[in-house]
Write a structure and sequence with these properties.
- By secondary structure, the chain is of the alpha+beta class.
- The protein folds into 2 domains: about 30 residues, no CATH class; about 100 residues, Immunoglobulin-like (Sandwich).
- It is built from 2 helices and 8 strands.
- A 5-stranded antiparallel β-sheet has the order 1-8-3-4-5, with no helix packed on it.
- The longest helix has 16 residues.
- It is elongated and about 60 Å long.
């Protein structure tokens, strides 16, 4: 199985020439290998503790990425609390706007906080906002971009 960088695979399909069978095999092998290495081309397993105010959890270059995926886990286990929240985000960058799809959300006790994604100039930003009662929550993310 060959594993090429995404930029190398991309150049094989942008030449205007008809891609070869080997080009397609390289595309499939590289995509499969990269998809199993969550975060290979991004910030992987970022963890922030003590979130008490709106906090930027991650930034990404909106000119370099077309799709960014996040797997997010937020926990509040201080002061006798045992609250957990997990969700996934797909963020599509179309050159002008950032479109967000949140799915796979699960929690065990209601509102632990909210998340937000916005575009500021050329950077996408992912924020975590703890609920007003929530002091010191913990956020862990995994991200992958294409």
């Amino acid at each position: 199985m060959s594993r090429l960088s995404l930029s190398t695979v991309k150049t094989k399909f942008q030449t205007g020439d008809r891609p070869s069978q080997q080009d397609y095999e390289d595309l499939i092998d590289s995509a499969a290998a990269n998809s199993t290495d969550l975060g290979t081309f991004g910030n992987n397993e970022n963890s922030i503790t003590g979130i008490e105010n709106a906090t930027v959890i991650d930034n990404f270059d909106a000119t370099a990425w077309r799709l960014v995926k996040y797997m997010i886990s937020i926990a509040k286990t201080s002061s006798g609390d045992n609250k957990y929240y997990a969700t996934q985000l797909d963020i599509l960058v179309d050159g002008t706007n950032i479109n967000v799809n949140e799915y796979g959300t699960i929690d065990n006790d209601g509102n632990i906080g909210t998340i937000s994604v916005s575009k500021v100039r050329v950077n996408g930003k992912y924020y975590s906002y703890p609920a007003s009662w929530s002091n010191a929550s913990h956020c862990t993310i995994c991200s992958y971009g294409t």
